[in-house]
């Protein structure tokens, strides 16, 4: 092919190819800067994008599990608050039962103590029935069913049992306002009604406290997993903004130089006109 041709301008072709490559690289760099991602979609890096989407799905599932655990934590907190109030009321009931077991009190005093006992038992029943969170009460469950709590995005469960506090605690002391001296004395014994109610309440406080501690630990663990997943995802697809900024400036200069080179190459055929001047 003749070097001096008006039909084929090799210099312009080379300059144009170089300018097009620079423009493509510039577009890719501008995309990284504008999105903040090295891999914004499958066109950038199909394999990395597929991994990133899988990680995003795992993170969304773990986030969802933590939201559910937050609800369970609220339910357990309400349950523990109710049991704590029941425990406090039972301690007061024990004090009054000691007085009812005293054979030296008058009938008037016994009636006053019995009225106080009636109020305490009413309060205990109310604490149990009002231990509701988001429409659920695991303290007033006559069936004492198993509660399944999802703990992570993989579908694993933590299970614990609800409790029939009305049957196991309140029913034990529900008639205490009618106790005479002998009944009150029996209620204070090792197997008596007051002792049994207190023991059962403390056992459930311990149980539900353990459930709550597990949920707290799982929430913290899930947050750690999310942090690790987010860090790994960032390392996989995030753009190095400092590097891309420097590359952007270099490409912009290359684009300007390429444009100038193309302009010079396009002017080359004009020199051939000098061959035909007189």
Characterise the protein shown here.
With 278 residues, the protein is mainly alpha-helical. It has two domains: 10-36 and 242-276; 47-236, f41 fragment of flagellin, N-terminal domain (Up-down Bundle). Helices cover 69% and strands 4% of the residues. The chain has helices at 10-35, 46-100, 107-129, 165-173, 181-187, 193-237, 241-267, and strands at residues 146-150, 157-161. Strands 1-2 form a two-stranded antiparallel sheet. β1 (146-150) and β2 (157-161) form a beta hairpin. α1 packs antiparallel against α7 and α2 (46-100) packs antiparallel against α3. The longest helix is centred in the N-terminal third of the chain and has 55 residues, at 46-100. It holds the Pfam family Flagellin_C. Residues 193-276 form the Flagellin C-terminal domain. InterPro entries: Flagellin (IPR001492), Flagellin_C (IPR046358), Flagellin_C_sub2 (IPR042187), Flagellin_N (IPR001029).
């Amino acid at each position: 092919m003749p070097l001096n041709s008006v039909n084929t301008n090799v210099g312009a072709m080379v300059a144009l190819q170089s300018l097009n490559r620079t423009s493509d690289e510039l577009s890719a760099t501008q995309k990284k800067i504008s999105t903040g991602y090295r891999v914004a979609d499958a066109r950038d890096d199909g394999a990395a994008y597929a991994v990133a989407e899988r990680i995003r799905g795992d993170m969304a599932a773990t986030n969802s599990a933590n939201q559910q655990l937050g609800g369970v934590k609220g339910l357990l907190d309400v349950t523990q608050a109710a049991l704590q109030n029941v425990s406090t009321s039972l301690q007061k009931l024990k004090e009054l039962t000691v007085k009812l077991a005293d054979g030296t009190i008058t009938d008037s005093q016994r009636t006053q103590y019995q009225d106080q006992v009636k109020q305490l038992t009413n309060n205990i029943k109310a604490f149990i029935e009002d231990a509701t969170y988001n429409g659920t009460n695991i303290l007033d469950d006559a069936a004492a069913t198993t509660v399944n709590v999802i703990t992570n995005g993989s579908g694993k469960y933590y299970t614990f049992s609800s409790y029939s506090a009305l049957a196991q605690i309140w029913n034990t002391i529900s008639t205490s306002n009618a106790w005479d001296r002998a009944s009150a004395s029996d209620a204070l014994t090792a197997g008596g009604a007051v002792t049994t109610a207190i023991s059962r309440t403390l056992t459930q406080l311990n149980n539900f406290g353990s459930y709550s501690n597990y949920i707290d630990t799982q929430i913290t663990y899930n947050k750690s997993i999310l942090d690790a997943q987010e860090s790994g995802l960032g390392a996989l697809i995030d753009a190095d903004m400092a590097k891309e900024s420097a590359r952007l400036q270099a490409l912009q200069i290359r684009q300007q130089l390429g444009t100038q080179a193309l302009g010079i190459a396009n002017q080359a055929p004009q020199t051939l006109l000098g061959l035909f001047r007189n």
